[in-house]
């Protein structure tokens, strides 16, 4: 299949290096010479879309290979903006990544922001070797608040799949939001403006997995027992003196895979900045691996 972009990272003189980088309209890869301390062995790849966003009919496919022992981070320069659709046309993005043994890939984008009437679908497929490590952040926002566009897009679909080296499926996940005839997306979101998922997999980020699970457990336990918050969502209970407010952020974590080798965290929040702060705090211990803390 013809692709619009491809990057290969392999060891050269004992350091992670880009051995191939190709991209064409409507995307571009930017690979800075240095991110963080020179002693850090990590390659950062920034993606951008010409014109600042994706338009109806765009179909973008990319391949990324991180060979044995290498470290790479894939990120964006800003939120991925999806412009309004024409008729039933939709925008599509596909990423296929292979991660070698003892290699680490961190996918750390800014959120997807779909404009009113937009139709957008993305799919990310990861093929991992024994000892591979992966950190994946996948998140999207409700739209352009400044223009009053809140959950006004027509379709958003995000699919993430992780396969083991023998082709055995390890993790499958799909989020689908589509305007319905009986109730709208905004009605189903119950006031939340951001949906996010974080996948943490593999031995090189085992410490991060353990920390995140404990932090999420403590955060939600503190909220559950606070007299000023309640997941029931009523702002004021007229029959009591207590004030009940919907939590600004809700998070849960669970393990997956043989012997719990992976962790998935799911998040819903009122504001984008809340999720940025969450990601900064929970992924801060990746700084020694990547050279800089994610979402700094």
From TrEMBL:
Pfam families: UreD. It comes from the Eukaryota. GO terms for molecular function: nickel cation binding. Transmembrane segments: none annotated. Signal peptide: none annotated. Coiled coil: none annotated. InterPro entries: UreD. Keywords: Chaperone. PANTHER family: UREASE ACCESSORY PROTEIN D. Belongs to the UreD family. This is Urease accessory protein D. The gene is LOC111497271.
């Amino acid at each position: 299949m013809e692709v619009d972009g491809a990057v290969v990272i392999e060891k050269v003189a004992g350091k992670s290096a880009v051995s191939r980088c190709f991209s064409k309209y409507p995307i571009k890869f930017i690979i800075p010479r240095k991110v963080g301390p020179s002693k850090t062995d990590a390659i950062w790849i920034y993606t951008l879309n010409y014109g600042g966003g994706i338009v109806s009919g765009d179909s973008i496919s990319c391949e990324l290979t991180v060979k044995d022992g290498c470290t790479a981070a894939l990120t964006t320069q800003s939120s991925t903006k999806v412009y309004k659709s024409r008729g039933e046309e939709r925008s599509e993005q596909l990423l296929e990544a292979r991660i070698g043994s003892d290699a680490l890939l961190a996918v750390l984008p800014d959120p997807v922001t779909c404009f009113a009437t937009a139709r957008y679908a993305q799919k990310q497929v990861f093929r991992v070797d024994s000892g591979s490590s992966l950190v994946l952040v996948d998140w999207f926002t409700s739209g352009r608040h400044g223009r009053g566009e809140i959950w006004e897009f027509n379709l958003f679909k995000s699919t993430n799949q992780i396969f083991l080296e023998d082709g055995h499926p390890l993790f499958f996940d799909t989020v689908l939001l589509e305007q319905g005839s009986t109730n709208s997306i905004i009605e189903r979101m119950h006031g939340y403006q951001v949906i996010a998922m974080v996948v943490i997999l593999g031995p090189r980020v085992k410490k991060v997995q353990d920390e995140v699970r404990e932090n999420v457990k403590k955060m939600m336990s503190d909220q559950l027992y606070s007299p000023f918050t309640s997941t029931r969502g009523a702002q004021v209970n007229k029959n009591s003196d207590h004030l009940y407010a919907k939590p600004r952020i809700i998070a849960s974590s669970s393990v997956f895979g043989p012997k719990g080798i992976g962790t998935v965290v799911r998040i819903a929040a009122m504001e984008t900045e809340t999720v940025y702060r969450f990601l900064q705090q929970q992924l801060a211990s990746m700084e020694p691996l990547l050279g800089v803390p994610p979402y700094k």
